[in-house]
Amino acid sequence: METSQINDPRTPPSAPSAGCDVVTVPARQGLEAVDILRRGTGEAVGPVLHDDGGGTLGFLVPPGTAAAWDVPGSTCTETDGRGPTLAPEPPVKGSDWLLPPGEAHLATDPAVLRRALGEAARTIKAADSCR
After folding, report:
1. Beta partners for 96?
2. For the chain, percent helix, then strand, then coil, each to nearest 5?
3. Among positive and negative, which fits the CA dihedral 42, 65, 15, 56?
4. 65 phi/psi in degrees, rounded to 5
5. 88-105: b (≥16 Cβ within 10 Å) or e
6. Backbone φ/ψ region at 16: left (φ over 0), alpha (ψ -120 to 50), beta
7. Is there a contact between 60 and 47 (Cβ–Cβ < 8 Å)?
8. Predicted local distance difference test score (pLDDT) of residue 48
């Protein structure tokens, strides 16, 4: 799986003003990306939802991110500021916080998330080729 990084002026800043968009990825890639982000220097990760039944992770990103999101293997749901808010309870039934609000930054920077997802995909591909 290839990912790309774009330098798009439409990419919003890392602090959302109201609500958040959600980048959804397969759980394996998402967990690897969370590890990469948490190990990084100065690269903050925002709240992350885990959907046990669907095997996905959802990264909260600033509103408007969906307009410029182009990472293969992931989706970004536009919420127009009506999406998940940073409440202590998960916004979706059947999900739970992997990184809850209060223990994370307001949102994950989309450019930083693109890089982490790309590195995660390469790591998974390398690990799978060793089997």
Report:
1. 50
2. 30, 20, 55
3. negative
4. -60, -35
5. eebbeeebebbbbbeebb
6. beta
7. yes
8. 92
| Interatomic CA distance for residues 110 and 49, integer angstroms | 16
CA dihedral 6, 12, 14, 18 (to 10 degrees): -150
Q: Mutual orientation of helices 27-39 and 110-129 as an angle, nearest 10°? A: 120
Q: 85: buried, middle or exposed (CB in 10 Å: 19+, 13-18, 0-12)?
A: middle
CA-CA distance, 44 to 63, in Å (whole number)?
17
pLDDT means over runs of 10, the chain (131 residues)? 37 48 95 91 81 88 92 88 57 79 83 95 91 71
| pTM of structure | 0.77
CA–CA gap between residue 14 and residue 105 (Å, rounded):
9
Which among 56, 89, 50, 55 has a CA at the least distance from the CA of 75? 56
